[in-house]
């Protein structure tokens, strides 16, 4: 997956991105069987692990992560920290070291999105608490998921690699334009929507409540209608993508060229996630190729499916 996101990375940059990815998802066995039986050590703790219903412990872990992201570039002793915190700190120090001279560490490209992602699990826990006893709407859940999906740090890391290897320097003002923000928003939505379609069968068995397909089915949609509805949201994203591209302003030939490199990086993230979903065994196991060819999956029946079959 990482090689598709950053195909032109140097060896050191590629290692840094892979290490960050392994912090989120890691193989249960060895690198030789990388595409089998993967787990997401950080992500899964909040989805279906020990922190799923424990916002206090979740916040403590998030605080430990944030402590390692202070603007002092110092190397503190984290030997007593959770192993995931140690891995995160190691990656963070490498990003700090690569920050260009004259740039404040917290102004570095990867800092804000990664900082935001590290905070998000506790925010999402609080969001679920606010929705306790109520079924969240798609819009409510989409807002929460955009923060917790872990996609925006990949966009920033793509910029870090491109900037480090190809001297990409995009002014901050460019990232504040409506069209660039829209392109990033669409990229995030594409990843999380296609992920929820592909991961639904696995997450249905685990009782994961925040899957977008699951929300549609809880709202009374039969299974096929729920998948079609999320598929329609994907199609809307494609439409919005081309509108955002058409709305891009020009900043001059030099900056425009670098912006196009960044946009290709966003596209690579989306494509890499889809490619990984069918290469890993996380969602379909040995049925990967069959599902990819047929587009058919088996879901657990619910009342709406029974009512539709009667009609």
Describe the model.
This is Terpene synthase. Its cofactor is Mg(2+). Its EC number is 4.2.3.-. It is an enzyme of class 4 (lyase). GO terms for molecular function: metal ion binding; terpene synthase activity. It is a single chain. The protein has 311 residues and is mainly α. The protein has one domain (2-301): Farnesyl Diphosphate Synthase (Orthogonal Bundle). Helices cover 66% and strands 1% of the residues. The chain has 15 helices and two strands. It has helices at residues 2-5, 11-24, 41-47, 55-67, 83-98, 111-130, 138-148, 152-166, 172-175, 178-206, 212-218, 223-246, 253-279, 288-294, 303-310; strands spanning 26-27, 38-39. It has a two-stranded antiparallel ribbon. Helix 10 (178-206) runs parallel beside helix 13 (253-279) and helix 11 (212-218) packs across helix 12. The protein starts with a helix and ends with a helix. The model is unreliable at 26-40, 101-115, 117-123, 125-132 and 306-311 (pLDDT under 50).
What tags apply to this protein structure?
single chain, 311 residues, mainly alpha, Farnesyl Diphosphate Synthase, two-stranded antiparallel ribbon, 15 helices, disordered C terminus, EC 4.2.3.-, Terpene_cyclase-like_2, terpene synthase activity
Topology readout:
Blueprint: H1 2-5, H2 11-24, E1 26-27, E2 38-39, H3 41-47, H4 55-67, H5 83-98, H6 111-130, H7 138-148, H8 152-166, H9 172-175, H10 178-206, H11 212-218, H12 223-246, H13 253-279, H14 288-294, H15 303-310
Antiparallel strand pairs: 1-2
